[in-house]
Write the structure tokens for this entry.
Amino acid sequence: QSVLTQPPSASGTPGQRVTISCSGSSSNIGSNTVNWYQQLPGAAPKLLIYTNNQWPSGVPARFSGSRSGTSASLAISGLQSEDEADYYCASWDDSLNGLVFGTGTKVTVL
Amino acid sequence: EVQLVESGGGLVQPGGSLRLSCAASDFTFSDYWMHWVRQAPGKGLVWVSRISDAATSTWYADSVKGRFTVSRDNAKNTLYLQMNSLRDEDTAVYYCARPLAGTRNAFDIWGQGTMVTVSS
């Protein structure tokens, strides 16, 4: 099972800011970087944020990431209907010697 | 276009075996560590395995250790996942993924996925 905990759901109206948390431990987020993915229904995941707060080419700046201690968060500003998707955090875990994903958060645009 | 294309999925009985392939194109495959990630129907993403660029090192999730083997053929630009002793809980879409240059675990390129169904 996942060792990174995310809220199962989050929602907002168009234009609002939504924040998703990702809670881990000293063996993963506390000592390794965090990446965030967006997965639209029926599609492969897409990299949104890497190395805690960096944007891959083509990802709009209204998506932003941060890390503090053993937790990380993804913020979506100016929420749009096309942001309705599942979001996952991920980090390497030194104790498991493997990559761990978060439990996933479904974002709904009201 | 940089691309990953998985193949080899299908229906297999519990205890059976299957080999997945992931064909890479339009990038220097031998420069990248590569990963397998799976997703059971309606569930979240789960990391499966990683292999270094020269195939000198491999890593596995505890759930597949001893049953799955990751390998690669850099001359053929292809990644493999040999899956033995398959269980019902291995049923999932299997993705291969390439990390963003300069990272080892931030996947900017994903395949379309191949479905593996383990059922009697």
